[in-house]
Amino acid sequence: MFSDQGPSLRELAVQALSSVERGYDLLAPKFDRTPFRTPDGVLDATAGALRPLGPFGRGLDVCCGTGAGMRTLEAVCRDGIAGVDFSAGMLAQARNAHPDADLVRADVRSLSFDGEFDLAVTFGALGHLLPAERPAVFAGVHRALRPGGLFAFPIGGPPPVTSALYWALLAFDAVMRVRNAVWRPPFVMYYRTCPLGAVRDDLAAAGFGVTTVPLTALGRRDDGAPRARLVLARKAPGPA
Fold it and tell me: Which CATH number fits the domain that encloses residue 82?
């Protein structure tokens, strides 16, 4: 896609008509050559915002995909990193990129970790979760963290209604809703189902204390608002 090394239109069509898991298995070898991979600028901005809050012990990338986000964990964690994803194809790519990481194939809606990590991150995964599924994921991440642990992820600011991006995202979500209404299995990928307010409420319900910081390295919109913020969800510390 958009390059000779990326997926063809036919490959993208096959992926879009598959389940989420099967679609990513198929796309995995070429995923990092598509615009869907989290840009390095976002990863570096996240690492920069996390660095003053660390260093952290052990880190977990939730929905790690090909492992792009693990570069953020490597920059701020000193006791090793791990990743979890349900696509075997994506995990194979992550294993090639990060041979020393612990990689687990699992459904993030039913994570089995228990107090093993000091930092968890996720990049670009919330759109693959229906709003009703977020509480289970956030509860699982909460269990996976040690007392005082941090769950962090970037979230883009809503584009202005007058922008082309606003209408492009609206159109994409509309097409996906039609596709999922007429075709099985569904492919869950939406851009407008995880507004900051709703995400904040779900994190608080899971037991996190939630703050945000602007990712200033990514710039500001014409109205002065940050293009993206880093959500910082902190698990309460244990007894002194």
Answer: 3.40.50.150
